[in-house]
TrEMBL record:
Gene3D superfamilies listed in its UniProt record: EAL domain, Hypothetical protein af1432
Protein name according to UniProt: Histidine kinase
InterPro entries, sorted: dGMP_Pdiesterase_EAL/HD-GYP, EAL_dom, EAL_sf, HDOD, RNase_Y/CdgJ
Phylogenetic lineage: Bacteria, Bacillati, Actinomycetota, Actinomycetes, Streptosporangiales
One example GO MF annotation: kinase activity
SMART domains: EAL
Originating organism: Planobispora rosea
Length: 422
């Protein structure tokens, strides 16, 4: 049964907790029909407000927000029912730099036309396909290297309106050479567009003629970012007891709900319902839980107006990524190094003492020492990263400047890709 507007209501009706703010979240949902006119799928889209007619933010943050809102706020089953769900992915998700914390299920992963295709992307997409995900190529045209993914794709989306008929025929002919490939006609704006798409033998149809994206809104509790940080710090420590993790989650009603929704989602590959946060955590496991919390933090970077502060986010993420890269060459745990760099960058940016920033976090001793006093092996990584950032590399480290420069540029590139628009 198709979800109705009544299904998407207020998440909580009880008195609002004092320490949790409320906010309204949004998601766009555009229908996709088959040759008989039956509704068979939805494409989920980033929307910053209830009246938005397009995406005001793009890139990894927007994708993260769509995933988090769909799976852990609205609930995928309430958004799409038993139908397919198309979700746009940026390069970071395709190559594995950012996690997909759910199993294939009924989700179709769209490779955006803005993604530059190289060997790393092709390898990442093939791995996703091997994991059972259906792949769709969005806004497909000839000659932009996306043809290299035709043999692994299940769907190809082709724009119809405004495209020269012969050009469209040639694109369809190329796709027809791949057995089992389903063609999706998108940007259908007139009855003539629809008739031509049917003549060319398209299997699925999407466009304003059949249905504009509808923005669904939901009032929900806003999870505490402190809880997010606390949870990530615990998950980065392999010695952390899962009961401690559960205690951190349950201390925040909104975060608890998100985790429960994520674990109970139709696309997580779990076949039983989960009755408690503890059950959800145990079944999801440390790695998948860490993936979800990472995406939740990233999705929260996009505010209610869809705006992002790229310089501030890039500063923090560059520090964290640089520490992670340096730690690998020293044989140190990269997850811990990333966390230390992240907390260090946040403290610097906020202008607060690191000790004050982490005073409410229960960190392992090596992580705490590294953040507060830059002590221990992890602390030396932070010291080196900060020195290189400021151009104050000690004389006895000058010989390493070439290696550090490469790591720093790599970290900058990674962080800018994360926060920049696609």
């Amino acid at each position: 049964m198709e979800p109705s507007p009544v299904d998407i209501g207020h998440m909580y009706t009880a008195d609002r907790p004092v320490d949790c703010g409320w906010h309204r979240i949004h998601i766009g949902r555009q229908p996709i029909h088959d040759t008989t006119g039956e509704l068979v799928a939805y494409e989920l889209l980033f929307r910053s407000n209830a009246r938005a007619e397009g995406a005001s933010a793009r890139g990894a943050e927007a994708t993260s927000q769509v995933i988090v809102n769909a799976f852990s706020e609205f609930g995928l089953e309430r958004l799409t029912g038993s139908r397919l769900c198309f979700i746009n992915l940026t390069r970071e998700f395709l190559v594995g730099e950012l996690p997909l914390p759910f199993d294939s299920g009924s989700v179709v992963l769209e490779v955006l036309e803005s993604v530059s295709i190289d060997d790393q992307v092709i390898s990442g997409v093939r791995k996703l396909s091997e994991q059972g995900f259906a792949i769709a190529l969005d806004d497909f045209i000839l000659g932009n290297e996306h043809e290299r993914l035709l043999d692994v794709a299940s769907y190809v989306k082709l724009e119809v309106s405004g495209v020269d008929p012969e050009v469209l025929r040639s694109r369809v002919a190329v796709c027809r050479a791949y057995e089992g490939l389903l063609l999706v006609a998108e940007r259908l704006e007139t009855m003539e567009d629809l008739a031509f798409a049917r003549e060319l033998g398209f299997h699925l149809f999407q466009g304003y003629l059949l249905g504009k994206p509808r923005v669904l809104s939901l009032d929900t509790l806003e999870p505490s970012r402190l809880r997010h940080l606390e949870l990530i710090s615990k998950l980065a420590d392999e010695q952390t007891d899962m009961d401690e993790v559960a205690a951190t989650v349950t201390a925040d009603p909104a975060l608890s709900y998100r985790i429960l929704r994520a674990a109970n989602s139709a696309a997580t590959g779990l076949w039983q319902r989960i009755s408690s946060v503890n059950d959800a955590i145990m079944i999801m496991g440390t790695e998948r839980l860490r993936h979800w919390v990472t995406l939740m933090l990233l999705s929260d970077v996009v505010g209610t107006d869809g705006n992002v502060e790229p310089e501030r986010m890039s500063y923090i993420l560059t520090r964290a990524r640089l520490c992670q890269l340096l730690s690998k060459s020293l044989g140190l745990p990269s997850d811990k190094a990333f966390t230390v760099g992240l907390l260090s960058g946040i403290a610097d940016l906020l202008g607060v003492a690191p000790a004050d920033l982490i005073s409410h976090l229960v960190l392992s001793e090596d992580v705490s020492d590294a953040v507060i006093g830059e002590r221990g092996p992890l602390g030396s990584v932070v010291t080196t990263a900060k020195a290189y950032e400021s151009g104050r590399l000690p004389d006895d480290r000058i010989d390493e400047s070439g290696r550090l420069a490469h790591a720093y540029l790599s970290a900058v590139d990674w962080s800018m890709n994360i926060v920049a628009s696609a």
